[in-house]
Amino acid sequence: MTAVLLTSTMNSGATFSLIVGGIAIYAASAALLCRIGMAGIAELETLGLTDSLSLLPNRRAMHGAIRQGLANHDEVAVALIDLDGFKMVNDLYGHAVGDKLIREAASVLLDVCDTEAKTFRLGGDEFAICMSGPLCNTLLEGICRAILERLTNPIPVEDRRIAVGASIGLSYSTRADALDSSELLRRADVAMYASKRGGKMRCTWFKQAFDRNLEAIRDMDTELRKALLDGELAVHYQPLVDAQSHQVVAVESLLRWHRPDGKVIGPNIFIPVAEESGLINAIGLFVLRQSCRDALEWSGIKLSVNISAAQLRNPEFPIQLGQILEETGFEPERLELEITETCLVLDPVVAERSLDIIRGFGVNVVLDDFGTGYASIGFLRQFRFEKLKLDRSLVVDSEGDEGSRAMMLSSISMAQALKMHVTAEGVETQAQADLVRAAGCDQIQGWLYFKAMPREEIAQHLSQLTPEGPPERKQA
Prior knowledge:
Layout: H1 2-48, H2 59-72, E1 75-84, H3 86-93, H4 95-113, E2 118-123, E3 126-132, H5 136-150, E4 155-157, E5 160-162, E6 165-174, H6 181-197, E7 202-205, H7 208-230, E8 233-242, E9 248-258, E10 264-265, H8 267-277, H9 280-295, E11 302-306, H10 309-313, H11 317-328, E12 335-339, H12 341-346, H13 348-360, E13 364-370, H14 377-383, E14 387-390, H15 392-398, H16 402-417, E15 421-424, H17 430-439, E16 443-444, E17 453-454, H18 455-463
Parallel strand pairs: 6-7, 9-11, 11-12, 12-13, 13-14, 14-15, 15-16
Antiparallel strand pairs: 1-3, 1-6, 2-3, 4-5, 8-9, 8-16, 8-17, 9-10
Helix pairs in contact: 3-4, 4-5, 7-8, 9-11, 11-13, 15-16
Domain EAL: 217-466
Keywords: Membrane, Transmembrane, Transmembrane helix
Transmembrane segments: 12-34
C-alpha cells in the first residue's frame, strides 16, 4: 500500500510541475503583451502581413485585400506577375544579387502602380497587383502593360544592368460571380502560364477555355503515362545521307504514339504535354535507351537523339546517359545528342556543365533547328557544337528568297569556320538538295530520300546498302 501511494505521489508531482510550468509561461506571455501594449500588438500584426525581403504586403495581406475589395465594391481584378529569367540571375550572380533584383523589381511595380493599385509579393519571383471598383479590369490591364514597358529596360543592380522580363496573368470578378480570393488567384496563375507559353513579356486574361485545356492536358497526361507502360510508344528512324556520296551515314530517332484505337499522335502534340507534366524525363530516357539498343547492330551508322530542355536542365541526366551507354554497350562516338537553342538559353550554366560531362563520354552534341532562334557566333563558340542542323524553314525559303539564301550561306560558312559539320533538314525536292549541296552542307535529311521508318524496316534497308551509287529512295 505504501509503495502504491508513493508512486501516485510521484506521478502527481510530475503532473503538478507541468501545470506550474504552463502557468508560468502563460503569465510571462501575458506580462510581455502588457509591456508591448496595443501599439506593439498592431506592429506585430503588420509584420505578419509584410514580406521581409521586398517590404511589400505578402500573400496573406493580398487575400485580405481581395476580400475587402469584394465586400466594398462590385468589381475586383487581380494580376499575377512572374519574373522571366530570374532563376538564371541567381545561377549567374548568386542569391544576394537575386535578392537585390527582387527589391528593385518591387520598386518598379510600386512606381507604376502609384496609389491606383495595391502591390504584393507572394514569394520567390512572384508578385501580385489588386484593384477594386468600377473599370478596375481596364485600369489594371493598363498598369500591367506599363510594367512590361518599363521592364524592356535593364534594371540596375550594383554595378550591373540586369535584363529581366515578366509574364502576367489577369483575373476579374464581380460580386455576383461570388469568386473568393483563392479562386481569383488560381485563375490569374493559369492565365500567367498562358502568357509564358505564348512567348512571355505579355499579359493574358483568364478564359474558361484555359481550364478546359488543362483538363484535356491532364487526360492526355494520364493516357501518355499508360502508353509508356503499355508499350504504345515506338521509336522510328529517319536516315541522313552524305551530300556527296548519297549514302546513309546516320539516323535520327523520332518518337511515335500508336494508340489502341488506331490513331497515331505526333510528338508535336504530346511532347509539350509531357514537358508540362514532367513525364518528358522518363520518355526521353526510354527513347535514348531504345535507340541505342536498336542501332547497336547498325555498324558504322551514327545515331542522333533529340534531348529536351527539361532533360538538359536535370543535373542527373549525364549520369543517366552514362548508365544507358554502359547498359547497352553502344559506342559513345556513334551517338549525337540534338539540342535546340532554347535548351541553352533557359539555363546556360547548368547546360554548359552537363554538356562538358557528356562530351567527356565521347558523345557529340548537335545544335538543332538553327536559323529560328537567338544563336550568335559567341553563342556557338561558347558551347562548341560538333554539328549544326539548318532548320527546314531556312532551307525551303532559300529556294525563292535571296535574303534567306544569303542567311543560309553565311550560316554554313560560319559553321565551317568553327569546324562544325552542317546538315540540312527538311529537304523535299531535288532543287533544294542541289542548293544545299552546292552551299557546302555535309549531310542531307528529308523526304526526298527517306521518311521515318520502324526499326525492322530500316534494319532491313541498311543491311541491303552497298557502297555503289545513291540509295534507292524509299518512303515509309
